[in-house]
């Protein structure tokens, strides 16, 4: 549950996302633990440093905290 590792992953992933033509600001980055279920459906107490995600969409800025929030915020093409 390392904030440094999460930020490293965001940086690496954002570079790739740009290369394939997407805007990283339109992507919700969510630190999760699939093993423990952290931040998947409910906010995790194990990642107190994580304040939530923000992404830009056609209809404005959307915010959330969990992977479920991010999935719910996906706009249809």
Protein described:
There is one protein chain. With 77 residues, this protein is of the alpha+beta class. It has one domain. It is 30% helix and 13% strand. The chain contains two helices and two strands. Strands 1-2 form a two-stranded antiparallel sheet. A hairpin with a 2-residue loop joins strand 1 (53-57) and strand 2. It is globular and about 30 Å long. 8% of the residues are buried. The model has no long low-confidence stretch (mean pLDDT 94). GO terms for molecular function: GTP binding; translation elongation factor activity. This is Translation elongation factor 1-alpha. Keywords: Elongation factor, GTP-binding, Nucleotide-binding, Protein biosynthesis. It comes from Neoboletus hainanensis.
General form: globular
Please report the distance between the alpha carbons of the first and last residues: 33 Å
The biggest sheet amounts to: 2 strands, antiparallel
Succession of helices and strands? HEEH
Radius of gyration: 13 Å
Give me the number of helical elements.
Answer: 2
Which whole number gives the mean pLDDT? 94
Provide the domain count.
1
Give the percentage of residues in beta strands: 5-15%
Question: Are there runs of 5+ residues with pLDDT below 50, and where?
Answer: none
Q: How much helical structure, as a percent, in the residues?
A: 25-40%
Q: Structural class, from helix and strand content?
A: alpha+beta
Organism: Neoboletus hainanensis
Keywords: Elongation factor, GTP-binding, Nucleotide-binding, Protein biosynthesis
Protein name: Translation elongation factor 1-alpha
GO molecular function: GTP binding; translation elongation factor activity
């Amino acid at each position: 549950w390392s904030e440094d590792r999460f930020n490293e992953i965001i940086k690496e992933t954002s570079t790739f996302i740009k290369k394939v033509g997407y805007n990283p600001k339109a992507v919700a980055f969510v630190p999760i633990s699939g093993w423990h279920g952290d931040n998947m459906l409910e906010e995790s107490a194990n990642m107190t440093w994580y304040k939530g995600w923000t992404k830009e969409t056609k209809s404005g800025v959307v915010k959330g905290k969990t992977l479920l929030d991010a999935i719910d915020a996906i706009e249809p093409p």
